[in-house]
Design brief:
Uridine Diphospho-n-acetylenolpyruvylglucosamine Reductase, domain 3, Uridine Diphospho-n-acetylenolpyruvylglucosamine Reductase, domain 2, globular, Uridine Diphospho-n-acetylenolpyruvylglucosamine Reductase, domain 1, 3 domains
Length: 335
Amino acid sequence: MVFEIQEQVDLTPYNSFGVSQMAAYFADIQDPADLPQAREFAASKRLSVLVLGQGSNTLFINDYPGLVLYMNNRGREILPGAGMLRAAAGENWHELVMFCLQNSLYGIENLALIPGTVGAAPIQNIGAYGVELDQFFVELEAFDLKTGEIRHMSKADCEFAYRDSLFKQDPGQKLVVLSVTLQLAVEPVLELGYAGLKEALLGQEATPQRVFDAVCAIRSSKLPDPKRIGNAGSFFKNPVVSRAKLLSLRESYPELPAWDTGDADLVKLPAAWLLDQKGWKGKQRGGAAVHEDHALVLVNRGNASGEDVVLLAQDMSSSILQGFGIALQTEVRIV
């Protein structure tokens, strides 16, 4: 495919919320070798650059005045060395999880059905059902838009944290992920401790395939399909608070759930539970609404603008701050 930069491209197909905004310039990057040319084009016109995968964690509230790089490079390779795998940034994440199962590579079954691409996975440090990407991460390749160089980045370089990484901070926003290398297990390694998953497997012998199937069933029952109704999955992060804060809250809400974080002084609270206490399920603002079955999921009822979604999210955050003294943070990238 000949490399080209398109003008005035509708971004509706490139974000799972399905909101309609325009990109001034747009490049479909199927070959990373085209990135230097895209970089030169952006520099010549003094354009900002936005890197986009499948847009499953992005909300546009305005037209984008710069250059959108749609990372669409493909390829999966089992490397020498037990359990080593490299995948291109444009690969679909869920399809990679299935590929690993088919090739007896284990560990990421709990991350099944997370929407988005391989390249987005380290940016968000995706996680679900007791497993996070950084547990299996070895390195990634990235193109530096600032210098034009290819960088090889270790786990330490990426500065992973809960739903966070270097790539969400200023130093990392000029880096375009090209590929990710993972170290998986060649014998089953099962994580069954997360609420709901253990119950779903009750009475069955736990296997990687059954964990995969159970996770897919749970996610499908809780989260709406973006192909049917626009959404980006969980809109807010689960807040982390001090144990003292938890004890204070349990004086009024003794049933408040909490999870250990690995830090004796901190616990994680379920944002969905907090929102449920304030009755947010099903509430609507403009064309945006909170899903009837899951208070963490904001949806596009068909005609929502990005602004509708943001204003609804702000109202939700304000109610949690006023009611619990907790500031919710968004998982979704707002552009």
